[in-house]
Amino acid sequence: MTMRAGEVYEHPYERLVVRLGTAESGGRELVADLYVPANSPGVPRHFHPEMTESITVIGGKVDTWLAGQQKVLEPGERLHIPPKTPHSWRPSGDEDVRLLIEVRPGARFEEMWRQFMGLFQDGKVGSKGPGFLQIMMMAREFPDVMAISGPPVFLQRALAALVAPIGRWRGYEGRYQEYLTRGPSEVVELEPLPR
Fold first, then answer.
1. Would 52 be classed as within a structural domain?
2. Which residues contact 45 (CB under 8 A, 6 or more apart)?
3. Is 2 among the domain residues?
4. How many CB atoms lie within 10 A of CB 141?
5. 193 within domain boundaries
6. What is the dihedral of CA 73, 19, 177, 84, to 10 degrees?
7. Strand partners for 147
8. Mean pLDDT of the chain
9. Domain membership of residue 115 as a residue range
10. pLDDT tens per residue, range 100-149
């Protein structure tokens, strides 16, 4: 729990500007502006077993999928995602997107997000994100934070347990300690949210 208000964390597809960090909230929540370029692949269908997430569109349009319902959200519209609810999103159209994301609890989400950020920053992923072995290693490390939508969770966890020795042998980890302590790229004054 180290993210603080005003800190900026980024990788090629996302720029996260912390509004309320896990340091200030004691890990209870993470609130941030998320800037996403129009050409971003977005996030694949997944769910959070023990977390609530809300996404409010500040700028641009976002193509969302929530529990089988597809909808394009425009500025001012919000998507509330309860635990265990399959969802995905990606920018819609040619315009960059600015979102307000709120995650509760935030501490474990921060840990996982730092893993993705570090992998992207260090060029250890392809254009569509981490490969199969890396995802399985992270699934084993963060079963409370995220699961892929589709196969039953018990099968995902069994598969992750089976391939973990192969992943370790190939040099993959579910959690890279250096990413947990990597500092922000900068600290900025927060932009006001539209009314």
1. yes
2. 65, 86, 87, 88, 148, 149, 150
3. no
4. 19
5. no
6. -40
7. 47
8. 92
9. 7-187
10. 999 999 999 999 999 989 999 999 987 777 888 998 899 899 999 998 88
**39 is a domain residue:** yes
Percent of the chain's residues with pLDDT above 90: 74
Assign residue 21 the CATH number of its domain: 2.60.120.10
Of 15, 16, 44, whose CA–CA distance to 103 is shortest? 16
What total of structural domains would you count in the chain? Answer: 1
Q: Is the peptide bond before 105 cis (omega within 30 degrees of 0)?
A: yes
- As a whole number, mean pLDDT of residues 154-173 equals 92
Question: The tokens 């769910």 sit on which residue?
Answer: 47
Distance CA 150, CA 135 (A): 15
Cα–Cα distance, 65 to 101 (Å, whole number): 16
Closest CA to 135 of 162, 111, 167: 167
